[in-house]
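Quick one:
INPUT:
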């Protein structure tokens, strides 16, 4: 007598399907969170890179030798060359962009094309021509506006700062770095100070 093998044609139960849907939902939520975090990190890297570039520009400007134009009488020496920080720059843009990018003006005397040989962005030889998410500050011998940096600039120093509002909720993120002149040498802070990075 032959045995008949009965093949089961059983499908998935409703509970099993619900478990699979729940797992997919959790994975999707984690993926969305990860993508948002990744996009926010990409945007904040603009501020970190720009703060670093402005600090390097301040260092380079300080290391340039400044010598006064003078007539030197025969048999005498000129005054010695000096080093100095660039003077405070115009804040660009005037208001913090709220979840949007700002396109800088490239007109002479405006935005990053303002200042002269001893003050502002021209002295730093720093410029941005592409749209950006943050408001940028550079100050000499004083802290940047509303700075939360514990190593605030007070004298013989500079502070550079980026302020942004990536999500447009009026809460702002701050990135800042300071440098101080010690024994004739400009020394930068060891780290960029960050407050509310993803705001």
């Amino acid at each position: 007598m032959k045995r008949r093998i009965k093949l089961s044609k059983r499908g998935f139960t409703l509970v099993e399907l619900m478990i699979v849907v729940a797992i997919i939902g959790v994975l999707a939520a984690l993926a969305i969170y990860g993508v948002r975090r990744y996009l926010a990190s990409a945007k904040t890297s603009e501020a970190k890179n720009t703060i670093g570039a402005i600090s390097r520009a301040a260092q380079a400007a300080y290391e340039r030798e400044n010598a006064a134009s003078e007539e030197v009488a025969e048999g005498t020496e000129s005054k010695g060359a000096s080093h100095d920080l660039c003077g405070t720059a115009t804040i660009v843009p005037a208001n913090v962009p709220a979840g949007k990018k700002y396109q800088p003006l490239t007109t002479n005397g405006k935005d990053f094309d303002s200042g002269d040989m001893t003050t502002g962005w021209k002295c730093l030889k720093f410029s941005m021509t592409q749209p950006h998410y943050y408001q940028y500050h550079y100050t000499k011998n004083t802290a940047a506006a509303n700075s939360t940096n514990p190593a605030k600039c007070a004298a013989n120093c500079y502070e550079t700062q980026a302020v942004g509002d990536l999500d447009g909720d009026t809460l702002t993120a701050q990135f800042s770095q300071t440098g101080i002149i010690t024994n004739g040498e400009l020394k930068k802070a060891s780290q960029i100070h960050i407050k509310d990075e993803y705001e």
